Structures are given as C-alpha cells and as structure tokens.
Amino acid sequence: MLPYGRQSIDERDIEGVLGVLRGEWLTTGPAVGAFEEELAAWTGGVPCVSVTSGTAALHTAYAAAGVGPGDEVVTSPITFVATAATAAMLGARVVFADVEEDTANLDPAAVEAVVGPRTRAVTAVDYAGHPAEYDVLRKIASSVEAVVVGDAAHSVGSRYHDRPVGALADLTTFSFFPTKTITTAEGGAVATADVELLRRARRFRNHGLVRDPQELRDPDEGGWHQEVHAFGLNYRLPDVLCALGVSQLRRLGAFRERRARLVERYNKALQGLAGLRLPTRRPHADPAWHLYSVGVLGGRRREAYERMRAAGIGVQVNYLPAYWHPVFADMGYRRGMCPVAEEFYARQLSLPLFPDLTDSEQDRVVEALHAILG
Q1: Does the reported pTM lie above 0.85?
Q2: Which of 98, 155, 211, 252 has its Cα between 20 and 30 A from that of 133?
Q3: How many CB atoms lie within 10 A of CB 65?
Q4: Which residues have a catalytic role annotated?
C-alpha cells in the first residue's frame, strides 16, 4: 500500500542516533539543547522547548498560558482532536469557530463573533502546512486579552508574509510524528518569545521542578534539593530522538523543495479534472506542504477513497470535525455548528505526499484518480 505520508530516513539520521547510543546520555543530555537550537533556526530565533509529542506540545502551551476551569479556548474543528482535547482536559470550555472555505484555516470573522471576556486562547491550525491569518487573529485576541496559539503540526518551515512559523503566535506547537515534514519518531515542541511563557513551558515538561537556588522556598535544604511549585508532567524528549531531529532539521530545506515540486506536479496533472477541487495557496503564504488536500465534489469522496485504497493507494481523510467525536457530542456539542468545516470534511481527501514519493508513484496516483473521476 502506497502511504499518504511517510518518514524519510537516511544514513545521516542513523549515524546521528548511533552517536547518542554510543555516548553517555540517552536523555536530558546535550542533544536536547542541540535540537532546540536547530529548531530555533527555523522559527526566526524564537526559543523552543522540546516535548514528547505534538499533543504534549499543545498541553504544555495551554498550561503555560494558564488555561484552566472557567476559561474558553477558541479553535478550529478541522484538526486532529488533540488541539481541542488538551484544552478540555485542563478544564477549559472549547469554542469551535468555523473555517475559511479555501484554506480550511480558522476564519477570523468567525473567531471575532465568539470571543469574549472568558477567552484565554485563540488556537489557529495551519491546515496542510498553509499558515493561518495570524496578523488578523492576533488583533482579535488582543482585544479580549487572550493569547494566540499556533498549532503548527503541519507547518514547520512555512512562512507568512515572509515571517517564519514559530514567530507568528504567542505560543507555537510542532509535531514530529513520522508522517510530518520532519520526524523524531514521536516528538513535538513549543516555541515562544515570551520569557515567562518559556519558563512555564520548560518547567511543565519536567514535572514542574524548580532547581534554581534563587527561586527555591527552602534553599538551605541541601545540594540535592528541588521543589515543585506547580504541577507538571514528564514530557521530556530524550537525546536519542533529539539526535534524529537534529539530522532531520538539517534536511528540512530539501524536504520543503521536494514537497513543493510534488505539489506542483499534482497541480499540473490534476488541473481541470472534473469533480475535483485543488488546494489553495494565498500570495502571502509560503507553505511547507504537509498534505496534498483535494476536494472530491458531487458526493463522491467515499467512492474515491475506497477505490483508491482498493488500488493500493493509501489516501486519507483529514479530519473528522473535532466536535463530531462522541466525547464532545456527550458534552452537548452538535453537528451543524460549523457548516463550512462540515462541508469541507464531506469532500476532503489527502493524496500521498512525502519526500521519497517518486514521480512514477505520483503518476500512478494521478492516473487512478483520473480513472475514477474522469
């Protein structure tokens, strides 16, 4: 089965991991800092905190922002459920705002209609790698003294008005799952330029431990002493995975170029195919494409999905509107609340896209889709 996404691993990656395995540190060692510095080179110098997954990154970002009971977090329903679930697990009420028809990113007008005095965070999702409209969203969030969180699970290496993802929101979260643009096997990160938010994120990913003698409440207890002032979790990304991440980040430019080339080939080969809507790219955006997301019109998405899969082509649907999950339905969320998002979901199909996808494999995908829809 040709997958819709897959990691690209070469000898440099393997040697990087072996170097850690041959060394003294498997976790909490020098590769962690090296990875965070390498990632910061892609965020415009914004400091980064590595964690164990993209979900952990969202949890850490919300915790750093102080999200809790009585707060509201406004976000998109077109995302993996973790974007909303991690806010709900902290006790916040999730408010879903509709998306833009062309990009499937959070619609600023929909956000403006639902923010209020309880809004603690507005979380945009850079769907498929295309950055959300951060400048407008930040103005809206500022009007109610909320932070903007950028869920950049899809968009490491993307740019918006010539500014890098990671420098656009108050807090940005990344995912490094194998299907993403770069991978650490499992892993994620939080980027923020705010010194206090950064401090909170670093503590939260390490049980909330405080070790700085100037901040300890009982500094004379002994050299071994450490304290927890606020609860955190063990979200530390180990050196062995950070070493893989360092190697992968050094290939990110090449990954971006190959993905862009594949997107260009898809656009050319599928242009004009009846019943198919191609992805949008706005002039001010430079996406590091994570998904090649098309719209299958005329109610034929399921047919296309099943026939492509039967042909050995692993297309995927990204995503079920988050509030359709039973866990949200059981809390009273109802279908129909974000009609643009639901219409997008009804036609969405992701075609295979990853750096090692060959031209001949891509041609096979195109021919199969033409045979179904042509």
Answers
A1: yes
A2: 252
A3: 26
A4: 180
